[in-house]
Design a protein that fits this description.
Structural class: alpha+beta
Number of helices: 20
Largest sheet: 7 strands, antiparallel
Number of strands: 41
Shape: globular
Length: about 900
């Protein structure tokens, strides 16, 4: 029976494969027929990220630029999953596949609804520029939060599952197209990315920078790849035939299309000075294999052809790839085709999707310290002081490249729900960093009609002059809003609306303040915003009187309050397209904030401090110049001084102190490791992040995350940021003692490694190795363990260090034990030499199996030795 079933499945798969090949061959012919009927100018228009409609060929316009790093971004309401670095901390391949699938379902639903409405808005397409599989080689990089960490195996494995989930498993049609980025060797500094020339060694290129891209292409079958801004060994990445033609297409067999990062074609001649002019840059990019320009430089395609810099055949080759991609999505000609064209808009932010993001947030939390098993908090701790700038801030849970979450749960809201509002004492405590603005805390604002409550009175209008009767009046709890392409509430138009917020503001102490407006970044909302701020009925800020570029950034005024008397704040905000993000912000005297936090701590049984970073400080090429930060990157790994001072003052109360970190990159929390009673790393945990944190503190969730990056003690031992050699970086090459090592994470239970077996102790080069590990939950709580498999070649000088080769996440009940089996391929067992050649080398090896990276602090790991008797060179 089993043999017959196996044969039947084989036949079905074979038939499906044959049909898919025939389908693609027909599509190739159809694409060629369309291209043959196009002028050179029409071809050039199709090779830019906003492809124009061609009515004569029944080809609709299409926007290639769409984002889905951890949820559909910039396209209104969407399920907001933890930031990518948090997803990496789950080490959960099945979860990444499920998240990719969920995101693509929402993407299809949004696209289908946009088509139904006749909309051509950007970010509602089906070609997504995610995931970011660059290696997080240096903790200073502001975009490291977008990656899956510092290890190529972890990054590649998670990327494969995310890409497969995104694109689906239909043999004829793709649900969406995933685009691993930025190919290649791209990881800061942000301010230099348009002209930087990365010079990795041949070994580092093959061993560190390329494997995750290779896996995403050869195993995940990604339909697209994005080339980077920077140059690699002297050639701009988007005009680099070694990367795009030799490696990506010939060595890896990539059949999809390559898209440039936005503006990268301009950089070829404008920043890199690689060519003399635009037509030559365009020709270099297309010849190297860049098919699609995010930008408008490919308007020079006809000029390049007429100047004999480029042949029309080379243009047709790129266009063929682009048309085939649209055909595989079912969106090139006529009515939308394929099994995904009917996915309804009701799928977006459905209860099932919210539960998945809650699961992801739970799994992403890493327990870094738990002295005397303070966590989970016992029933005797009833009154809790919740302090810190990240406790009640949407940007601290969303992460960058995100959509607009519905009913996001910030930590303060979840803590009040978990322990009861009367048992939570909240104080903001500090700003993120000296000189930065932060939303005015809710407990210092009161609606004008209800001065005993928290928040602001919001009056919403479906016009831009706030005339007539508002269509919605409500109390908004916090002055921290995200309206990107969504309706602010029932009856309010999503495209054109105005809001009047009024509230009583009670300064915490006399002194000098700044009060103002912060507008969050929005690709489609620039210069469509207007605001006016009044203090005690006096107009103090008016965007219409500012230069347009200044009206889109923070604006504030200096105010001095002589006492704690209340003052009325009124903000009038208008938006004529797509909504936006707006915060009513302040910069108070530091002592006033700390004093409030001390008072809250003194009246509580324990303190939970929510500190860290925010996406307004670390991110993509930002205008940030504050202590410890520069242009989106970081110049220090320390917790910013304002927050560090807060923690140290709170510690003087003697109350148990739990530090919860919300951030996208490693922090050198040396003081907290020594003095805090417990530390949780929660990353930017997504729309249900607050709930997951509260559940973890209370014991409803057993933390199981593992660090995907090394937490260093400081920058002293790290090489210069712009040095792309891997020596001295990441757990594989760093020689110092880290603050917290890669792969580290505690649990509320205990796991024991009882036994380990390998399939053979003597291998021939080219043979796989199977390892079986017996893991037991020897504690009293159910929990998840991440079994990590490392190998190293034993040498007299110890030059080869353990490197991650595989991993598996397993759930175990108290007392339960289970065999975990992994298979290591010849590529897994290989090493990369100085010349960049990947080889299986003869010698004696050790295999480590445990819940952490091998080292003196990793107890309980099992070790097995094996020998490889011969050598073998593998293909790149």
């Amino acid at each position: 029976m089993h043999i017959r079933l196996h044969c039947f499945c084989f036949v079905v798969c074979l038939i499906a494969t044959v049909l898919a090949v025939a389908q693609d061959e027909q599509r190739q012919k159809d694409a060629s027929a369309l291209i043959s009927r196009m002028s050179l100018e029409e071809k050039a228009a199709q090779m830019q990220d906003h492809a124009a409609a061609l009515p004569k060929l029944n080809i609709p316009e299409y926007g290639w630029w769409n984002e889905a790093l951890h949820g559909v971004a910039y396209a209104g309401k969407a399920t907001n999953f933890p930031q990518a670095i948090g997803l990496a901390a789950t080490w959960d391949t099945e979860l990444l596949h499920a998240i990719g699938e969920t995101i693509s379902i929402e993407a299809r639903a949004k696209h289908n609804e946009a088509i139904r409405r006749g909309s051509d808005a950007r970010f509602y397409g089906l070609t997504f520029w995610s995931p970011n599989v660059n290696i997080f080689r240096d903790p200073r990089w502001g975009r490291g939060q977008e990656t899956y960490g510092e290890d190529p195996v972890l990054t590649g494995t998670l990327a494969v599952n995310f890409v497969r989930g995104m694109q689906g498993d239909n043999p004829d049609y793709l649900r969406v197209i995933a685009t691993p980025k930025h190919f290649a060797v791209h990881s800061g500094p942000e301010q230099q990315r348009h002209h930087f020339n990365g010079r990795p060694s041949s070994r580092d290129l093959e061993d560190t920078y390329l494997p995750a891209f290779r896996a995403a292409v050869t195993e995940g079958h990604a339909g697209s790849v994005m080339c980077a801004y920077n140059a690699v060994n002297g050639m701009p990445a988007c005009a680099n035939p070694i990367l795009l033609n030799d490696t990506l297409r010939r060595s890896w067999g990539f059949q999809g299309y390559v898209v440039s990062d936005c503006g990268a074609i301009d950089d070829i001649f404008g920043e890199h000075k690689f060519t003399a002019d635009a037509p030559t840059a365009v020709a270099a990019a297309i010849k190297a294999g860049t098919d699609l320009d995010c930008g408008h430089m490919y308007r020079y395609v006809p000029a390049a052809v007429r100047q004999n810099l480029l042949t029309e055949t080379e243009v047709d080759r790129s266009l063929q790839r682009l048309f085939l991609a649209r055909m595989r999505l079912g969106i090139l000609q006529g009515a939308e085709q394929g099994p995904y064209a009917s996915i309804p808009i009701s799928e977006v932010d459905s209860p099932r999707h919210r539960e998945l993001t809650l699961r992801a947030a739970r799994e992403s939390i890493v327990l870094l310290k738990n002295a005397k098993n303070l966590l989970p908090l016992s029933a005797s701790i009833r009154r809790i002081a919740v302090i810190g700038p990240a406790a009640d801030y949407l940007a601290s849970i969303k992460g960058n490249y995100a959509g607009t979450p519905t009913n996001p749960v910030v930590p303060l809201t979840a803590m009040r729900k978990q322990w009861g509002e009367s048992n939570i004492r909240y104080a903001q405590g500090s700003v993120f960093v000296d000189g930065a603005l932060l939303p005015i805390p809710r407990n210092l604002l009161a609606p004008v009609a209800s001065p005993g409550s928290e928040g602001l009175t919001g009056e919403y209008f479906n016009n831009l002059d706030l005339s007539g009767k508002p269509v919605l009046v409500r109390t908004d709890p916090v002055p921290n809003f995200d309206f990107v392409d969504v309706s602010p509430g029932p009856g309010v138009d999503a495209q054109t609306f105005a809001v009047r917020w009024t509230a009583w503001f009670i300064p915490p102490a006399p002194g000098k303040y700044r009060i103002g407006i912060h507008l969050g970044f929005c690709y489609e909302c620039r210069q469509l915003v207007g605001y006016r701020m009044y203090l005690d009925d006096k107009l103090v800020l008016d965007s219409s009187t500012m230069p347009s570029q200044d009206a889109q950034t923070d604006a504030s005024i200096a105010v001095e309050f002589s006492d704690r008397s209340r003052h009325q704040i009124r903000v009038e905000y208008t938006r004529s397209k797509s909504g936006g993000q707006i915060d009513i912000v302040w910069q108070p005297p530091a002592d006033a904030l700390i004093q409030q936090a001390l008072e809250a701590a003194e009246k509580s049984d324990a303190v939970v401090a929510f500190v860290g970073l925010s996406t307004n400080l670390e991110g993509e090429q930002m205008k940030v110049d504050l202590p410890g930060f520069s242009g989106g990157d970081r110049t220090s790994l320390d917790l910013p001084a304002a927050q560090q001072a807060l923690l140290e003052r709170i510690a003087t109360t003697g109350k148990p102190l739990i530090v919860v970190l919300l951030n996208g990159s490693a922090l050198s929390v040396n003081w907290a490791k020594e003095h805090a009673d417990a530390i949780l790393e929660a990353w930017y945990p997504g729309q249900e992040g607050g709930t997951a944190i509260a559940e973890t503190l209370s014991g409803q969730n057993n933390p199981s995350g593992k660090l995907p990056v090394t937490f260093y003690k400081n920058l002293d031992d790290l090489p210069p940021f712009d040095d792309y050699r891997m020596q001295g970086r990441t757990y594989r090459f760093y020689s110092g003692k880290p603050l917290f090592p890669f792969g580290f994470g505690l649990s509320y239970t205990k796991f024991s490694y009882l036994d380990a077996h390998i399939s053979s102790r003597r291998l021939k080069a080219g043979e796989p190795l199977v390892a079986k590990v017996l893991v037991k939950n020897s504690g009293t709580r159910a929990g998840d363990e991440v079994v990590q498999i490392y190998t190293r070649l034993l040498t007299k000088d110890g030059s080869h260090r353990p490197a991650l080769k595989s991993f598996a996440r397993v759930h175990l009940k108290p007392g339960e034990q289970r065999w975990v089996k992994v298979q290591l391929s010849p590529r897994d067992l290989s090493l990369v030499g100085e010349t960049g050649a990947r080889q299986v080398l003869p010698g004696t090896y050790e295999l480590y199996a445990g819940g952490c990276q091998p080292g003196p602090d990793c107890s309980g790991a099992k070790v097995a030795r094996y020998q490889i008797a011969s050598s073998m060179t593998l293909q790149p």
